[in-house]
Amino acid sequence: MKLTVKNLRVAFPSPRGPVEAVRGVSFEMGAEKLGIVGESGSGKSLCARAILQLLPAHARASADVLTLDGIDVLAASDKAMCKIRGKRVGLIMQDPKYSLNPVMAVGDQIAEAWRVHRGGGKSEAREAAIDLLSQMQIRDPQRVARAMPGELSGGMGQRAMIAMMLAPNPELLVADEPTSALDVSVQAEILRLLERLVDERGMGLMLISHDLPMVSRFCDRVLVMYAGRIVEALKASELSAAKHPYTLGLLGCLPSLTNRKARLQTLERNPEWSAA
Protein backbone atom coordinates (compact mmCIF):
# COMPACT_ATOMS: atom_id res chain seq x y z
CA MET A 1 0.00 0.00 0.00
CA LYS A 2 1.30 3.45 -0.91
CA LEU A 3 -0.50 6.72 -0.28
CA THR A 4 0.84 9.77 -2.13
CA VAL A 5 -0.32 13.30 -1.35
CA LYS A 6 1.11 16.33 -3.15
CA ASN A 7 -0.10 19.89 -2.69
CA LEU A 8 -3.43 18.98 -1.09
CA ARG A 9 -5.69 21.97 -0.52
CA VAL A 10 -9.13 22.12 1.11
CA ALA A 11 -11.13 25.35 0.93
CA PHE A 12 -14.50 26.50 2.29
CA PRO A 13 -16.66 29.30 0.86
CA SER A 14 -17.13 32.52 2.83
CA PRO A 15 -18.60 35.97 2.16
CA ARG A 16 -15.06 37.18 1.43
CA GLY A 17 -14.25 34.31 -0.90
CA PRO A 18 -12.76 30.81 -0.42
CA VAL A 19 -10.87 30.21 2.82
CA GLU A 20 -8.19 27.51 2.70
CA ALA A 21 -8.13 25.28 5.77
CA VAL A 22 -5.51 22.91 4.30
CA ARG A 23 -2.78 24.59 2.27
CA GLY A 24 -0.31 22.63 0.18
CA VAL A 25 0.09 19.49 2.29
CA SER A 26 2.41 16.86 0.79
CA PHE A 27 3.58 13.49 2.14
CA GLU A 28 3.87 9.80 1.30
CA MET A 29 3.30 6.77 3.48
CA GLY A 30 3.29 2.99 3.22
CA ALA A 31 3.04 0.20 5.79
CA GLU A 32 4.23 2.37 8.68
CA LYS A 33 2.87 4.31 11.65
CA LEU A 34 2.61 7.97 10.68
CA GLY A 35 1.59 10.54 13.29
CA ILE A 36 -0.01 13.89 12.41
CA VAL A 37 -0.04 16.37 15.29
CA GLY A 38 -1.10 19.96 15.76
CA GLU A 39 -3.61 22.10 17.58
CA SER A 40 -7.36 22.10 16.89
CA GLY A 41 -8.08 23.73 13.54
CA SER A 42 -4.67 22.96 12.06
CA GLY A 43 -6.19 20.77 9.33
CA LYS A 44 -5.25 17.29 10.55
CA SER A 45 -8.69 15.71 10.30
CA LEU A 46 -9.51 17.51 7.04
CA CYS A 47 -6.47 15.86 5.42
CA ALA A 48 -7.74 12.43 6.46
CA ARG A 49 -11.29 13.16 5.31
CA ALA A 50 -10.05 14.43 1.93
CA ILE A 51 -8.23 11.14 1.41
CA LEU A 52 -11.55 9.31 1.89
CA GLN A 53 -13.75 11.87 0.09
CA LEU A 54 -15.63 12.49 3.34
CA LEU A 55 -15.48 16.27 3.34
CA PRO A 56 -18.62 18.40 3.83
CA ALA A 57 -20.56 19.07 0.63
CA HIS A 58 -19.53 22.74 0.53
CA ALA A 59 -15.81 21.98 0.89
CA ARG A 60 -13.58 21.97 -2.18
CA ALA A 61 -10.50 19.74 -2.31
CA SER A 62 -7.74 19.82 -4.91
CA ALA A 63 -4.29 18.28 -5.21
CA ASP A 64 -1.52 17.83 -7.75
CA VAL A 65 -1.48 14.16 -6.72
CA LEU A 66 -3.73 12.26 -4.33
CA THR A 67 -3.42 8.56 -5.05
CA LEU A 68 -3.77 5.25 -3.24
CA ASP A 69 -1.71 2.64 -5.08
CA GLY A 70 -2.10 4.69 -8.27
CA ILE A 71 -5.86 5.28 -7.92
CA ASP A 72 -6.72 8.98 -8.26
CA VAL A 73 -8.85 9.49 -5.17
CA LEU A 74 -10.20 12.93 -6.07
CA ALA A 75 -11.33 11.72 -9.50
CA ALA A 76 -12.78 8.42 -8.23
CA SER A 77 -16.51 7.82 -8.56
CA ASP A 78 -18.79 7.08 -5.60
CA LYS A 79 -18.79 3.41 -6.65
CA ALA A 80 -14.98 3.33 -6.73
CA MET A 81 -14.77 5.04 -3.34
CA CYS A 82 -17.09 2.41 -1.84
CA LYS A 83 -14.36 -0.12 -2.67
CA ILE A 84 -11.77 2.04 -0.92
CA ARG A 85 -13.62 3.17 2.21
CA GLY A 86 -13.67 0.37 4.73
CA LYS A 87 -12.27 -2.29 2.43
CA ARG A 88 -8.89 -0.64 1.83
CA VAL A 89 -8.91 2.28 4.25
CA GLY A 90 -10.61 2.15 7.65
CA LEU A 91 -11.46 5.20 9.77
CA ILE A 92 -11.60 5.15 13.57
CA MET A 93 -13.37 8.21 14.93
CA GLN A 94 -12.87 9.98 18.26
CA ASP A 95 -15.83 8.82 20.30
CA PRO A 96 -17.69 5.54 19.74
CA LYS A 97 -20.95 6.80 21.22
CA TYR A 98 -21.26 9.21 18.31
CA SER A 99 -20.07 6.79 15.62
CA LEU A 100 -21.72 3.46 16.44
CA ASN A 101 -25.41 3.00 15.60
CA PRO A 102 -27.17 3.38 18.99
CA VAL A 103 -30.13 1.14 18.05
CA MET A 104 -28.17 -1.77 16.56
CA ALA A 105 -26.31 -4.48 18.49
CA VAL A 106 -22.53 -4.18 18.39
CA GLY A 107 -22.06 -7.64 16.89
CA ASP A 108 -24.57 -6.91 14.11
CA GLN A 109 -22.67 -3.74 13.17
CA ILE A 110 -19.36 -5.60 12.93
CA ALA A 111 -21.00 -8.45 11.01
CA GLU A 112 -22.54 -5.96 8.58
CA ALA A 113 -19.11 -4.47 7.83
CA TRP A 114 -17.78 -8.00 7.27
CA ARG A 115 -20.56 -8.99 4.85
CA VAL A 116 -20.50 -5.73 2.86
CA HIS A 117 -16.80 -5.99 2.10
CA ARG A 118 -16.02 -9.70 2.33
CA GLY A 119 -19.30 -11.46 1.55
CA GLY A 120 -20.43 -14.66 3.27
CA GLY A 121 -23.59 -15.63 5.12
CA LYS A 122 -25.06 -14.24 8.31
CA SER A 123 -23.75 -17.03 10.56
CA GLU A 124 -20.23 -16.73 9.15
CA ALA A 125 -20.28 -12.96 9.63
CA ARG A 126 -21.59 -13.37 13.17
CA GLU A 127 -18.77 -15.77 14.05
CA ALA A 128 -16.27 -13.40 12.47
CA ALA A 129 -17.64 -10.52 14.58
CA ILE A 130 -17.22 -12.51 17.80
CA ASP A 131 -13.71 -13.53 16.75
CA LEU A 132 -12.80 -9.89 16.05
CA LEU A 133 -14.11 -8.84 19.46
CA SER A 134 -12.00 -11.60 20.98
CA GLN A 135 -8.95 -10.23 19.12
CA MET A 136 -9.69 -6.89 20.83
CA GLN A 137 -8.92 -8.72 24.11
CA ILE A 138 -12.55 -8.57 25.24
CA ARG A 139 -13.13 -11.31 27.82
CA ASP A 140 -16.76 -12.06 26.98
CA PRO A 141 -17.11 -11.34 23.24
CA GLN A 142 -20.48 -13.11 22.94
CA ARG A 143 -22.05 -10.82 25.55
CA VAL A 144 -20.51 -7.70 24.01
CA ALA A 145 -21.72 -8.77 20.55
CA ARG A 146 -25.30 -8.85 21.89
CA ALA A 147 -24.96 -5.52 23.69
CA MET A 148 -26.11 -2.14 22.42
CA PRO A 149 -23.45 0.59 22.16
CA GLY A 150 -25.00 2.52 25.07
CA GLU A 151 -24.38 -0.46 27.36
CA LEU A 152 -20.61 -0.36 26.83
CA SER A 153 -17.96 1.73 28.56
CA GLY A 154 -15.89 4.18 26.53
CA GLY A 155 -12.92 1.83 26.26
CA MET A 156 -15.11 -1.15 25.35
CA GLY A 157 -16.96 0.90 22.75
CA GLN A 158 -13.68 2.01 21.19
CA ARG A 159 -12.52 -1.62 20.97
CA ALA A 160 -15.80 -2.51 19.26
CA MET A 161 -15.29 0.30 16.74
CA ILE A 162 -11.76 -0.87 16.01
CA ALA A 163 -13.12 -4.39 15.46
CA MET A 164 -15.67 -3.01 12.99
CA MET A 165 -12.98 -1.11 11.07
CA LEU A 166 -10.76 -4.22 10.96
CA ALA A 167 -13.56 -6.49 9.69
CA PRO A 168 -12.88 -5.69 5.99
CA ASN A 169 -9.12 -6.25 6.61
CA PRO A 170 -7.99 -2.79 5.38
CA GLU A 171 -4.51 -1.89 4.22
CA LEU A 172 -4.53 1.51 5.92
CA LEU A 173 -6.12 2.48 9.22
CA VAL A 174 -6.79 6.17 9.89
CA ALA A 175 -7.23 6.81 13.62
CA ASP A 176 -8.57 10.30 14.32
CA GLU A 177 -7.96 11.03 18.02
CA PRO A 178 -8.91 7.42 18.90
CA THR A 179 -8.15 7.80 22.61
CA SER A 180 -9.14 11.41 23.34
CA ALA A 181 -12.36 10.42 25.15
CA LEU A 182 -10.65 7.78 27.31
CA ASP A 183 -8.76 7.93 30.59
CA VAL A 184 -4.99 7.49 30.62
CA SER A 185 -4.87 3.80 31.56
CA VAL A 186 -7.42 2.84 28.89
CA GLN A 187 -5.58 5.01 26.34
CA ALA A 188 -2.43 2.96 26.88
CA GLU A 189 -4.34 -0.32 26.43
CA ILE A 190 -5.96 0.86 23.17
CA LEU A 191 -2.62 2.05 21.77
CA ARG A 192 -0.90 -1.23 22.63
CA LEU A 193 -3.77 -3.07 20.97
CA LEU A 194 -3.52 -0.93 17.83
CA GLU A 195 0.24 -1.40 17.68
CA ARG A 196 -0.07 -5.18 17.93
CA LEU A 197 -2.80 -5.38 15.29
CA VAL A 198 -0.95 -3.10 12.86
CA ASP A 199 2.26 -5.11 13.21
CA GLU A 200 0.47 -8.47 12.88
CA ARG A 201 -1.57 -7.44 9.85
CA GLY A 202 1.14 -5.40 8.11
CA MET A 203 -1.14 -2.36 7.78
CA GLY A 204 -0.30 1.30 7.56
CA LEU A 205 -1.56 3.52 10.39
CA MET A 206 -2.22 7.26 10.25
CA LEU A 207 -2.61 8.48 13.83
CA ILE A 208 -4.08 11.98 14.25
CA SER A 209 -3.57 13.44 17.70
CA HIS A 210 -2.89 16.47 19.90
CA ASP A 211 -0.63 14.36 22.13
CA LEU A 212 2.91 14.95 20.90
CA PRO A 213 4.71 12.67 23.45
CA MET A 214 2.27 9.81 22.78
CA VAL A 215 2.76 10.08 19.01
CA SER A 216 6.54 10.25 19.41
CA ARG A 217 6.53 6.97 21.38
CA PHE A 218 4.03 5.17 19.18
CA CYS A 219 4.77 6.25 15.58
CA ASP A 220 7.64 5.90 13.13
CA ARG A 221 7.36 9.39 11.66
CA VAL A 222 5.66 12.62 12.74
CA LEU A 223 4.18 15.45 10.69
CA VAL A 224 3.57 18.69 12.61
CA MET A 225 0.76 20.87 11.22
CA TYR A 226 0.03 24.52 11.88
CA ALA A 227 -2.60 26.69 10.17
CA GLY A 228 -3.25 24.14 7.43
CA ARG A 229 0.39 23.48 6.56
CA ILE A 230 3.04 20.94 7.50
CA VAL A 231 5.71 22.98 9.24
CA GLU A 232 7.98 20.08 10.18
CA ALA A 233 8.40 16.40 9.30
CA LEU A 234 10.81 14.15 11.16
CA LYS A 235 11.37 10.70 12.57
CA ALA A 236 9.53 10.13 15.84
CA SER A 237 12.79 9.10 17.50
CA GLU A 238 14.28 12.49 16.56
CA LEU A 239 11.46 14.64 17.93
CA SER A 240 13.73 16.02 20.64
CA ALA A 241 15.90 17.45 17.84
CA ALA A 242 13.00 19.39 16.27
CA LYS A 243 13.94 22.80 14.86
CA HIS A 244 10.71 24.61 14.01
CA PRO A 245 9.69 27.11 16.73
CA TYR A 246 6.10 25.79 16.74
CA THR A 247 7.24 22.21 17.45
CA LEU A 248 9.66 23.46 20.08
CA GLY A 249 6.86 25.52 21.60
CA LEU A 250 4.56 22.51 21.83
CA LEU A 251 7.31 20.48 23.51
CA GLY A 252 8.09 23.33 25.89
CA CYS A 253 4.47 23.58 27.01
CA LEU A 254 4.46 20.02 28.36
CA PRO A 255 4.58 19.51 32.14
CA SER A 256 7.22 17.17 33.57
CA LEU A 257 7.19 15.19 36.82
CA THR A 258 10.98 14.93 36.87
CA ASN A 259 11.83 18.52 35.87
CA ARG A 260 9.16 20.67 37.49
CA LYS A 261 8.79 24.31 36.54
CA ALA A 262 7.21 27.11 38.55
CA ARG A 263 5.34 28.16 35.42
CA LEU A 264 4.79 26.32 32.13
CA GLN A 265 6.15 27.91 28.98
CA THR A 266 3.60 29.64 26.75
CA LEU A 267 3.67 29.45 22.98
CA GLU A 268 4.68 32.71 21.32
CA ARG A 269 3.22 32.65 17.82
CA ASN A 270 4.91 34.19 14.80
CA PRO A 271 2.79 35.38 11.82
CA GLU A 272 5.47 33.98 9.53
CA TRP A 273 4.43 30.44 10.52
CA SER A 274 1.15 30.98 8.65
CA ALA A 275 2.81 32.33 5.50
CA ALA A 276 1.84 30.42 2.36
CATH superfamily of the largest domain: P-loop containing nucleotide triphosphate hydrolases
Shape: globular
Q: Work out the strand percent.
A: 15-25%
Report on the biggest sheet. Answer: 6 strands, mixed
Strand order of the largest sheet: 7-8-9-3-10-11
Give the N-terminus to C-terminus distance in angstroms: 31 Å
What is the count of β-strands?
Answer: 11
Return the average pLDDT rounded to an integer. Answer: 88
Helix content: 25-40%
CATH class of the largest domain: Alpha Beta
User: Strand pairing plus helix content: what structural class?
Assistant: alpha/beta
Elements, N to C (H/E) = EEEHEEEHEHHHHHEHEHEEH
The name of the CATH topology of the largest domain is Rossmann fold
Any idea how many domains? 2
Output the number of helix runs.
10
Can you tell me about this structure?
This protein has 276 residues and is α/β, with parallel strands linked by helices. The chain has 2 domains: 3-88 and 172-274, P-loop containing nucleotide triphosphate hydrolases (Rossmann fold), CATH 3.40.50.300; 96-169, no CATH class. Helix content is 35%, strand content 23%. It has helices spanning 44-51, 78-82, 96-99, 106-118, 122-135, 141-146, 154-166, 184-201, 212-218, 245-252, and strands at 3-12, 19-29, 33-37, 60-62, 65-68, 71-72, 89-92, 172-176, 204-209, 221-226, 229-235. The chain has a 6-stranded mixed beta sheet with strand order 7-8-9-3-10-11, with helices on both faces. The chain is globular and about 60 Å long.
